[in-house]
Specification:
globular, 67 residues, mainly alpha
Length: 67
């Protein structure tokens, strides 16, 4: 049960930071004290790629990641 709650909270924190940093993975990784690769792995595990793209679109950032 504790492991499940920790994973849930970790996902929430990553999603919050992605929004705060406008979906910018590098900035989010730095703010969380993770390598970009580690954050990308967690984003894949928690299915957060779409949330990062949405944050970029919401921030008005155009490019291949926001398509």
């Amino acid at each position: 049960m504790l492991a499940t709650e920790l994973r849930k909270r970790e996902r929430e924190v990553i999603a919050e930071y992605l929004e705060k940093h406008r979906g910018h993975v590098g900035e989010t990784a730095d703010a969380l004290g993770l390598t970009r690769r580690a954050l990308e792995h967690k984003m894949e595990a928690y299915e957060l790629r779409d949330e990062a793209a949405k944050a970029r679109v919401d921030a008005g950032i155009k490019g291949p990641r926001s398509a």
